[in-house]
């Protein structure tokens, strides 16, 4: 089912090639559940030209935006996530005034069931944050584009900043009446099921799984961690939702990437298990070659970060013929899924 020009749109943001891949998977997950609404992507200079071309091909519309940094290094350091500063760029979504209402989805979300009914919700609607339910999580929210709201948010940020240094602290402070608002503003958790809940409350997951509509791969442990050794996260968690994300990536998104920059197979490994609610944990440090994957970025000779691994992949400089070759990636995935 194609999108309709009804003034409604799903919006996401890509600031790097890695998140551009997430955005592509998200877009195809929305198409897979037959959304009736348009898909709009915001992207920055951090996305390479070839990945930008893929975003423009898959999304109905696209807008290049400047990076807004909260410059609040102290608060960001408190939660050990200095990279969250660029998430202030998310505020640009309020400038999409060609739409009457939008739903913002982080690029690390994945839609598993049609949820077009979210557009019936008022601004500002969001689900409780799993870590502190009195505030909302900004991975999924309903908003009404407005240039005035955008300006007000910037002014508010300049005066009050953000209690966590990121967009979540700012938006919770600005939309401070959310907790006391009526139920229409509070989305059920099933519209923003964070991976923390998947790992920490298996019984609830099994009970409410049929109602889940959107998965949010919260934190640094992203679904693409299945494709490389993530030394930062230290552990790999493989759930059915990670497998669904990877299968969509391999079956559709990877096919869209230029052959010159594609380094993994066009299909998922045959060893992908199908059991429900399975969670596998293992130390990624056991991976001999710590393989990674490039998602369409062109390697720049001599510019690979000294740390290699994840950093090299993020910078678009993976070792295509060495540790980051498909053969090594395939071995690592199969080991992870077998729990070796």
UniProtKB/TrEMBL annotation:
InterPro entries: Glyco_trans_8, GNT1/Glycosyltrans_8, Nucleotide-diphossugar_trans. Keywords: Cytoplasm, Glycogen biosynthesis, Glycoprotein, Manganese, Metal-binding, Transferase. This is glycogenin glucosyltransferase. The keyword Ribosomal protein does not apply. Gene3D superfamilies: Spore Coat Polysaccharide Biosynthesis Protein SpsA, Chain A. One of its GO terms (cellular component) is cytoplasm. It is found in: Cytoplasm. CDD domains: GT8_Glycogenin (cd02537). Belongs to the glycosyltransferase 8 family. Glycogenin subfamily. It catalyses: [1,4-alpha-D-glucosyl](n)-L-tyrosyl-[glycogenin] + UDP-alpha-D-glucose = [1,4-alpha-D-glucosyl](n+1)-L-tyrosyl-[glycogenin] + UDP + H(+); L-tyrosyl-[glycogenin] + UDP-alpha-D-glucose = alpha-D-glucosyl-L-tyrosyl-[glycogenin] + UDP + H(+). Self-glucosylating initiator of glycogen synthesis. It catalyzes the formation of a short alpha (1,4)-glucosyl chain covalently attached via a glucose 1-O-tyrosyl linkage to internal tyrosine residues and these chains act as primers for the elongation reaction catalyzed by glycogen synthase. Its cofactor is Mn(2+). GO terms for molecular function: glycogenin glucosyltransferase activity; metal ion binding. The keyword tRNA processing does not apply. Its EC number is 2.4.1.186. It comes from Heterodera schachtii. One of its GO terms (biological process) is glycogen biosynthetic process.
């Amino acid at each position: 089912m194609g999108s309709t020009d009804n003034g409604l749109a799903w919006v996401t943001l890509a600031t790097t090639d890695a998140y551009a891949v997430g955005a592509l998977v998200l877009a195809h997950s929305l198409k897979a559940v037959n959304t009736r609404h348009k898909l709009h992507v915001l992207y920055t200079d951090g996305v390479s030209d070839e990945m930008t071309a893929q975003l423009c091909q898959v999304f109905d519309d696209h807008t290049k935006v400047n990076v807004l940094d909260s410059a609040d290094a102290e608060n960001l350091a408190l939660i050990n996530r200095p990279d969250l500063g660029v998430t202030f760029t998310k505020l640009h979504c309020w400038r999409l005034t060609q739409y009457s209402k939008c739903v913002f989805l982080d690029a690390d979300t994945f839609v598993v069931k049609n949820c077009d009914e979210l557009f019936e919700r008022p601004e500002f609607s969001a689900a409780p944050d799993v870590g502190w339910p009195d505030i909302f999580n900004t991975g999924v929210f309903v908003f009404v584009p407005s240039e005035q709201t955008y300006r007000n948010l910037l002014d508010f940020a300049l005066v009050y900043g953000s209690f966590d240094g990121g967009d979540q602290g700012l938006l919770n402070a600005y939309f401070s009446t959310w907790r006391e608002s009526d139920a229409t503003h509070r989305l059920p958790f099933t519209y923003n099921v964070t991976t923390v809940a998947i790992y920490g409350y298996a019984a609830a997951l099994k009970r409410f799984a049929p109602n889940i509509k959107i998965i949010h791969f919260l934190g640094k442990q992203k679904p693409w961690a299945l494709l490389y050794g993530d030394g930062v996260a230290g552990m790999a968690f493989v759930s059915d939702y990670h497998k669904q994300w990877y299968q969509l990536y391999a079956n559709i998104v990877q096919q869209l990437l230029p052959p010159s920059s594609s380094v993994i197979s066009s299909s998922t490994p045959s060893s992908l298990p199908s059991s429900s609610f399975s969670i596998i944990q293992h130390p990624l440090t056991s991976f001999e070659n710590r393989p990674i994957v490039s998602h369409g970025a062109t390697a720049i000779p001599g510019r690979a970060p000294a740390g290699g691994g994840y950093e090299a992949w993020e910078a678009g400089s993976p070792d295509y013929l060495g540790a980051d070759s498909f053969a090594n990636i395939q071995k690592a995935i199969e080991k992870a899924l077998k729990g070796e």
